[in-house]
Amino acid sequence: MQFTTIVAALLATATAVVASPVIEARGDEIFYCAEQPYKKSDYTCYPKNNYLLCPITGGVVYLPCGNRPWGACYDPANYGCNNGQLYPVSTCNGIHFDKNSYVCVDGFLCPKTHPNRCGDACYNTSQYWCDNGKLKQVGQR
User: Fold this and answer.
1) What is the pLDDT of residues 88-128, one digit of tens each?
2) Rounded to two decimals, what is the model's pTM?
3) Where are the beta strands (DSSP E) in 11-94?
4) Residue 51 near residue 68, CB atoms below 8 Å
5) Of 16, 66, 68, 105, which one has the fewest beta carbons inside 10 Å?
6) What is d(CA 112, CA 100) in angstroms, rounded to the nearest whole number?
7) Which residues are within 8 A (CB) of 34 and not within 5 positions of it... i.e. 6 or more apart?
């Protein structure tokens, strides 16, 4: 009889656990971003981006770019978003810039087409050369 009571108690406990709402052992409640389950400690839901679900990684809240299902999540320290298109960013002397368009030369931003610095000017070696901080055209002495 005692064995039957223990088995019945175990079955009742197992049934109660299975029937309980979805809650993690840590106490983090499960939320829904449209039909996608998530924990607010690990993800952010962006309803304005057609319910795009973006991670929180290393304490960084990733931002949405574009709309689900084709949208992407990005780290704002490394990327920017313009009209649903991601572009890499970095900083140069405290200024954010697009890595596709510029390079940082000794703390100075130069276009990728002119990736060298001479004094306060950027130049392309096919057109200019630097002589003691002054630009000179190729072929000029």
Assistant:
1) 888 899 998 888 899 999 899 999 999 999 999 999 988 99
2) 0.56
3) 30-33, 36-39, 43-46, 52-57, 60-61, 63-65, 72-74, 79-82, 85-92
4) yes
5) 16
6) 8
7) 51
